[in-house]
UniProtKB/TrEMBL annotation:
Any one annotated GO CC term: membrane
Organism this protein belongs to: Ignavibacterium album (strain DSM 19864 / JCM 16511 / NBRC 101810 / Mat9-16)
Keyword Membrane tagged: yes
Keyword match Protease: yes
Compartments in which it is found: Membrane
Active site: 46, 116
Family matches, as PANTHER family: CHLOROPLAST PROCESSING PEPTIDASE, SIGNAL PEPTIDASE I
InterPro entries for this protein: LexA/Signal_pep-like_sf, Pept_S26A_signal_pept_1, Pept_S26A_signal_pept_1_CS, Pept_S26A_signal_pept_1_Lys-AS, Peptidase_S26
Gene: lepB
GO biological processes: signal peptide processing
Name the record gives this protein: Signal peptidase I
Protein family (similarity comment): Belongs to the peptidase S26 family.
Membrane topology designation: Single-pass type II membrane protein
Peptidase S26 domain ranges (all copies): 18-268
C-alpha cells in the first residue's frame, strides 16, 4: 500500500486532536469560571475606597465552599446548584460578593450580585455609634479604606428611614443597633410583635411561605409555634462608604449559603466618567489600581 493512502487518516487524526484540545480548553474555562473564579464589574460607590466605579475584580468562589455553577456557562440561564465541599468560614473584614434570596428582601435586590465587607460574624452583637463600630460592646478598628461622606445626599435622605429589623425609630444610618446576628442553633422566641422580623428568615430556611398569622396565633406549616431554631449562619455586612451604602442596615443579615466568594484583586480599572473615544481610552485607564489586592 502506498504512503498516500495514509494521508486522509493523518488529517483526520489532526482534526480530532484539535477538537479534543479545544473541548478540554473550553471545559477547563467552564470549571474555572463556574467553580473557582468569577469576574465582576463595580458600578457603585458603596465600597469606596477599596473598590470604586469602573473597577473589574476577580472573586475566589472557592474561598468558603466549592459549589457547582448556578448558571449555564456563558449564559444568564439559571440551573440548580449544590455544594460539593465546605472549606473555610468567612471572616471579619472579608470583602465578599453575595446574592440576597427572594424570601429575605424585595425582589428589586435579588437581581444583583452585591459586594460588601463582613463586619459581624454569626452570634455576635453589632452596634454603630457615629463612625465607630462595636462588636460585643468592644470597639473595632475600621479598615483604612472606610470613608464617611457627611455631604452625601444619601446620608440625609436615609437618616429617617426604617432600618432592619425595624426595632427602634430612633435608629439612623450612623446610629444603629445593637443587633445580634443569628447563628445556627439559636432559639428565637416568636410573637406577634417580632414575627415580621423573623418571618423572612424562617421562609428562607424553609424554602417557602409557611408562616401564617391570625390575630395572636402564629402557625408554621399549620402548627402553632412560639419559638424557632435558626438553621443557618448569617453575617452582618457594611459598605466601606458608610454613608452611601445599602447594606445590612437596610436589608438585614446575609446567609452564609448566599455568599458567592471573596474579592481577590482588581484585574482592570477604567474611569467611567471619561469619554470612551480612542484617545480618551488611555486617559481613562487607572494603571495604579490594576493588579491591586483587596483586603
Amino acid at each position: 500500500m502506498s504512503a498516500q493512502a495514509y494521508k486522509p487518516a493523518v488529517k483526520k487524526k489532526s482534526k480530532l486532536k484539535i477538537f479534543l484540545f479545544a473541548l478540554i480548553f473550553f471545559l477547563t474555562l467552564i470549571i474555572i469560571k463556574g467553580i473557582f473564579l468569577g469576574a465582576y464589574h463595580i458600578t457603585s460607590s458603596s465600597m469606596r475606597n477599596a473598590l470604586i466605579e469602573g473597577d473589574f475584580v476577580l472573586v475566589k468562589k472557592s474561598s468558603y465552599q466549592i459549589r457547582t455553577p448556578d448558571k449555564f456557562p456563558f449564559t444568564p440561564f439559571k440551573i440548580p446548584s449544590f455544594r460539593i465541599l465546605k472549606r473555610h468560614k468567612p471572616e471579619r473584614n472579608d470583602v465578599v460578593v453575595f446574592k440576597m434570596n427572594e424570601f429575605l428582601v424585595d425582589t428589586s435586590l435579588t437581581e444583583y450580585d452585591l459586594v460588601k465587607r463582613i463586619i459581624a460574624l454569626p452570634g455576635e452583637t453589632v452596634q454603630l455609634k457615629d463612625r465607630s463600630v462595636f462588636i460585643n460592646d468592644e470597639e473595632i478598628n475600621n479598615p483604612s479604606s472606610v470613608t464617611f461622606n457627611l455631604n452625601s445626599p444619601f446620608f440625609y435622605n436615609k437618616a429617617e428611614q426604617k432600618f432592619y429589623p425595624f426595632k427602634d425609630k430612633t435608629w439612623k444610618i450612623n446610629f444603629y443597633g445593637p443587633v445580634k446576628v443569628p447563628q445556627r442553633g439559636d432559639t428565637i422566641q416568636i410573637n406577634p410583635k417580632n414575627i415580621s422580623i423573623w418571618q423572612p428568615i424562617i421562609n428562607y430556611e424553609s424554602g417557602g411561605k409557611f408562616i401564617n398569622v391570625e390575630g395572636t396565633v402564629i402557625t408554621y406549616k399549620g402548627r402553632p409555634i412560639t419559638e424557632y431554631i435558626i438553621q443557618k449562619d448569617y453575617y452582618f455586612v457594611l459598605g466601606d462608604n458608610r454613608f452611601e451604602s445599602v447594606d445590612s442596615r437596610f436589608f438585614g443579615f446575609v446567609p452564609e449559603d448566599e455568599i458567592i466568594g471573596k474579592v481577590w484583586m482588581i484585574y482592570w480599572s477604567i474611569n467611567p466618567a471619561i469619554e470612551t473615544g480612542f484617545w480618551d481610552f488611555f486617559n481613562a485607564l487607572r494603571f495604579d489600581r490594576i493588579t491591586k489586592s483587596i483586603y
